[in-house]
């Protein structure tokens, strides 16, 4: 069982489908022991929701893990969330499977009503949410030891050299360009098919 080596601390705009009910239970009971090795079994890196809500616990449990904080300006982050996570709820099929219900409930409780305090406030008070986003990023910078943290600002150039040097991993040798994926439009285009696939998987299971 390999431990986590890399933790992505950039605040989320998407969801997780791995044991959502266990993550939610861990979030509601911060003093209760969690088998992190089981939750992240077969993975050496973790990003996004719900991982970002357990940063302080994970960096203690995995003392050799390195942390990458990807950040952007608060305006573009807020716009991205409003154009991706919120529409996700609109493409859920009628009478969704329990699997999808658990996932959306986890995202609501941990991300919107947890990390961001209030789902409705997120929609109705954008300036408050943008301030919380900036405060979260600063908290990561203040909390994570400098030798374990790499901050990547999307307003600056991000290169293989920056990341590979930090992770002490070899750089690609075939001239592969640095990937730029999961744009707002690509996620919006993929949402209906993602939901269909998840529903089909649950039906077959």
Automatic annotation (TrEMBL):
Pfam families, per database record = Sulfotransfer_4 (PF17784)
> Which SUPFAM superfamilies does the record associate with it?
P-loop containing nucleoside triphosphate hydrolases
Under the heading Gene3D superfamilies, the entry gives:
P-loop containing nucleotide triphosphate hydrolases
Identify the domain of life: Eukaryota
- PANTHER family listed in its UniProt record: P-LOOP CONTAINING NUCLEOSIDE TRIPHOSPHATE HYDROLASE PROTEIN, P-LOOP CONTAINING NUCLEOTIDE TRIPHOSPHATE HYDROLASE
Protein name, entry field = Uncharacterized protein
């Amino acid at each position: 069982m390999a431990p986590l080596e890399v933790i992505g601390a950039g605040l989320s705009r998407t969801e997780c489908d791995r044991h959502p009910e266990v993550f939610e239970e861990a979030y509601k009971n911060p003093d209760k022991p969690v088998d992190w090795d089981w939750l992240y079994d077969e993975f050496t890196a973790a990003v996004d929701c719900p991982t970002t809500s357990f940063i302080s616990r994970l960096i203690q449990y995995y003392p050799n893990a390195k942390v990458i904080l990807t950040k952007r300006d608060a305006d573009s982050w807020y716009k991205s969330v409003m154009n991706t996570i919120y529409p996700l709820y609109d493409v859920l099929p009628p009478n969704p499977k329990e699997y999808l219900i658990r996932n959306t409930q986890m995202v609501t409780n941990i991300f919107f009503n947890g990390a961001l305090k209030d789902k409705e406030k997120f929609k109705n008070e954008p300036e408050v949410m943008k301030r919380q986003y900036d405060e979260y990023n600063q908290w990561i910078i203040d909390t994570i030891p400098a030798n374990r943290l790499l901050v990547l600002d999307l307003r600056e150039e991000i290169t293989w050299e920056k990341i590979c040097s930090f992770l002490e991993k070899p750089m690609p040798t075939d001239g592969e360009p640095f990937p730029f994926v999961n744009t707002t439009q690509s996620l919006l285009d993929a949402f209906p098919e993602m939901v269909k696939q998840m529903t089909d998987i649950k039906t077959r299971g």
